Amino acid sequence: MEKYMILAPQKENGGLFMQPVIQDNVAHIVYDEARAAQPLKTFLLPPLDEVVGKKVQAEKPWLFLGIKACGLAALPILDQAFGGDFTDPIYQKRREESFIVSSDCTQPWETCFCTLVGGQPYPVKGFDLNLSKVWDGFVIEVGSLRGKTLLEGHDEVLKEVVREEATALEKMRNETTKKVEEQNRDFKFEKRHREVVSGNWESEVWERHSETCVECGACNHACPTCHCYFLDDVTRKTFVKLRGWDSCMYSGYAVTAGGGTPRPRLYERFRNRYFCKFKYLDDNYGMYGCTGCGRCIEGCQGKIDMRQALKDLVKN
Ligand code: SF4
Ligand code: SF4
Question: Distance, CA 299 to ligand 2 centroid (Å)?
Answer without folding.
Answer: 8
